Amino acid sequence: MYSQEEPMSEFAEVSQLYLDETVRLHGLGYYSSHPCCAVCEQVVGEEAPAGSGRRRLFRCKDCGVFLQCFECCLARHSSSPLHFLEEWTDGHWRHTTLQSIGLVYQLGHEGFKCKFPDALVRSLTVVHPNGIHEIKYRFCQCRRSDTCNNLQQLHRNGWFPATKTDPDTAVSTQALDLYRLLNVVGNLNARDFITSLERLTDATNSTGMNWLPDTYKAFLRVSRQSSFLQRARRSARAHDPNGLKATKGGELTPRCWPCPHTDRNLAPGWREVDKEYRYLYRLIVALDANFKLKNRIRKNEHDDPSLGPGWGAFVEPRRYKKHLRKYVAEKDISTCIAFAALTQKETRNTAGLRVSGVGGCVCARHECVRPNGMGDLQKGERYANMDYILVSALGDVDLKEYTVSYDIACQWKKHFEARMEKLPKALQRDFSDVLVQCGLPVWHALAHEEECTNENNLSLLPGVGKSDGEGIERLWAILNGIAFQTKEMSLGNRADTMEDKLDSHNFLKNLGQGDALRRRLVVAIAERARQVEAFKEINKTIKPEKRAEWQAQIDRYLEDRSRPNPYLMAVPLDGPSEADIRVKLRMEEQADAANGQAPLHATSATAFLTAGLQLEETQYVSAGIAAKTQLTADRQSKVEEHRIAFFAKLRPFRGLQEVYTPGAIRMLAKDAEARAAAATDTTVPAPAAENIHLWLPSELPAGERTDGCKGNLVEMEARLRESQCTDSLSAIRLALHSKRHLINFRHGNIGGQMRMTRSHSLVDQLGIRVDALANKYRQAREALLVLRGQGYAPHLRKLEKADLRLEGEEGENDTEADRSDRSAARKLRGIGGRPVREVGKSTVLSWIWTAKGALDSEEEELHESLRIEWSRAKARKKRWEEEVELLREEMRRVIRYLEWEVETWGARAAAATARADIMEDARSGLRGYALAQVALHRKLSDHFRGEWSMNINEATTQLTTDVVNFDTLFTTST
Ligand SMILES: [Zn+2]
Ligand SMILES: [Zn+2]
Ligand SMILES: [Zn+2]
Ligand SMILES: [Zn+2]
Ligand SMILES: [Zn+2]
């Protein structure tokens, strides 16, 4: 036996033995000296009497390695025609077939005797998982055949015919099932599958020594048809007396179990629930485009529509195209300029393509594709396409609240309502009494401008819990696996191939919910506890009147988003902000354009620079997360997502650099050369997102800065950098104000319940933020001095660590002992010890407190900063509270959905039994299928309940009680 550690080195001990044994199978083995048939136990081979049929010696690759005589072999295989044989010939095993030893298979009787078989013996090629067979068979013509035609005889034998009339090829059910899985799991295409089966049948097939019929085209057709029918079967289309043609849009795509579906998995009375609980019955979707899933124009292609167009994940193509044809090109002025420069909304290169990508809509929390939530894109990511897809994807659910996460939500949402009127009447929806909330996916939001992020980041929107909207990227990663094989396909084949992939994706997502929801809930309960503590920490330091005033400001904002944003600073800065400078630069550019100075590119120089600075900012965030020592698996995957998003944005930025800063392009080329020279070993990984050189003008060597930058980019960057310095300096002061306030409060209130949990407290979070801001200041200042010369702006001084340290604050490197000493000293104070000094600014005031504009508004600054900290801490707490409740509701919905399936399939079984319009054998099949579905869904429901009642820790135990009494929410809230 192998030990777990060294299986391969232990193999060395047995490799010779194994080698000998595998060769032994090529002989007669134990029976070498006296071969005999394992079935009739008679002597076989040369010693058997001539003409007895025992002279010939066989072995079956599918039955087992035992020996069989000719007669036993033929008799044994009358109902197993898809076995491959070997015959002992000239001292070795030679491949042979049942057909070549005379087997004629009897259809209609599963190989057993028919009283009146068809006189004609026919040939058929059958594709089966063990190879490609050419068999002989007869149709049945006895009474059994009265109720079925020849095609049905093939189907009833588990063989799917390739053509309607006189089929010469069929594919077995087993081969279809195997291929479908190899395709959806491993992206194996039909050509490779058939080639493998050909080689399995005859290793020398490619030489043409033996001739195997070409089954590829027939197989391709059949596998598409059979997968389509499988999807139809599972959606109960066979059980509808009105038949396939009555299929409704999107019906064949598996629904997401934890998402809300009206009339399937919502508790009765959900419509009447209090406003504050409505978010529990909200559908949260994510919308995005993928430009890897292209399709080329092919010449002389015959029309090849998808099977059941519009019945699955893709929208019905005819109506969709009709809508797009009448649509005029859209002109959209983006106000979020950094983002506009980083997006590839319009793909430039669509030559030779009839499909430039795919637009998709998934549920954001579980990443299931929505029925009718996919559509082809022709010319980039146009609203005309995306609106149509989104509204189709909402499908038949009728809820009171929806959230749409979209990485261009800030622009897209502006005229959505007006554009709705351009959609076909059947798709239009009345949202007047419904909440439609739009947000930016949490990581993607980083590429937007600060004001935009503060308004639209999903993490600040009420009711979404911790949904991050990034899940659709994971779906794209899965679909990209078939980007290559679908690129040259006919449109119909492509759509059907993608339907299969999406179908399997949704199926797996649903099955995974038992584990996924449980894990997420355990995390959410723990995190909620931490955020509640952090909020308490700041809340108790604020006077009740202030709290009420601030809460009112939040409420007003949530009611009406045009009100002042409570998560933003309302204090004027000491100098123009980055946003101010951006506006100024843009106006100057427009003035230049009006004076006849043609812009270099449709994306302005200001937008280009802003985009670069935003990318730089996302690099800090990446580095910040990656640097945390303990990377949990979850955070690790977040870092990965973040990096992918970064590279997606980097590409268009590089494109703009070619126009604006050719010097940067030259530096990139040098970088690449240096890497190639240094790394003879090509396995050296490319640098991570946070270590990439962006090559903004300030990063370029002096020569490239003067020659390699167009226009007055250098001057423009300098102005932006200066404003970055001022912005980050005020933000640092604000964060320090709050921190000081919290520490003082803590010191003044040591009544013995002083908490020493450091790592999660708000004070520590503020410390981390100050460090990040300090890094931003240092980088901006360094760039500014490079651009303007070392003597420039003496008031923007070098920022030292000591400048950020509040007096009396515990240092980072304090040992545990130091801290407990201090803590003991504080306790002493209560019984007459030396009073602890107030934490203040350093005794020698750091320059940041005396810098221009800083002292004038200190009181106001403190207030503002506390208000924002308090508002944000409250929002964070609220999101985690929502997350816990959402997860519990989702678990209840999964169970309800499965119960709905059990009930519905049970009803279908009963309805099938009662049908008088069909024969008993058809009824039996419908009933059998339905009852198998009942059993499956009941088993899943039991399994999930079990999984959610596992006693992993207190949190999970608590959740079990909730799942069992699941409608407590209504009894307590009404
Ligand atoms: Zn025998
Ligand atoms: Zn066999
Ligand atoms: Zn018969
Ligand atoms: Zn879902
Ligand atoms: Zn934006």
Which characteristics define this entry?
single chain; 5-stranded mixed β-sheet; 974 residues; alpha/beta
Summary, kept brief:
By secondary structure, the protein is of the alpha/beta class. The chain has 5 domains: 22-102, no CATH class; 105-234, no CATH class; 248-511, no CATH class; 572-856, no CATH class; 878-973, no CATH class. A hairpin with a 2-residue loop joins strand 6 and strand 7 (131-138).
Describe the overall structure:
The protein is α/β, with parallel strands linked by helices and 974 residues long. Helices cover 49% and strands 9% of the residues. The protein has 5 domains: 22-102, no CATH class; 105-234, no CATH class; 248-511, no CATH class; 572-856, no CATH class; 878-973, no CATH class. It has a 5-stranded mixed beta sheet. Strands 14-13-10-15-16 form a 5-stranded mixed beta sheet, with helices on both faces. Strand 8 (159-161) and strand 9 (169-172) form a beta hairpin. It starts with 6 loop residues before the first helix and ends with a helix. Residues 750-759, 812-838 and 959-974 have low confidence and may be disordered. Bound molecules: zinc ion (5 copies). One zinc ion (ZN) is lined by residues 108-109, 114, 140, 142, 144. Keywords: Coiled coil. Residues 807-826 are annotated as: Disordered.
Query: What's the pLDDT, averaged over the residues?
Result: 84
User: What's the number of helices?
Assistant: 30
Quote the distance from N terminus to C terminus: 64 Å
| Beta strand % | 5-15%
Count of structural domains: 5
Number of strands: 16
As a percent range, the share of helical residues equals 40-55%
Q: Please state the overall shape, judged from the principal axes of the Cα atoms.
A: elongated
Main pleated sheet = 5 strands, mixed
Structural class: alpha/beta
What small molecules accompany the polymer chains?
zinc ion
Pfam families: CxC2 (PF18803), KDZ (PF18758)
Protein name: CxC2-like cysteine cluster KDZ transposase-associated domain-containing protein
Domain CxC2-like cysteine cluster KDZ transposase-associated: 98-204
Organism: Mycena metata
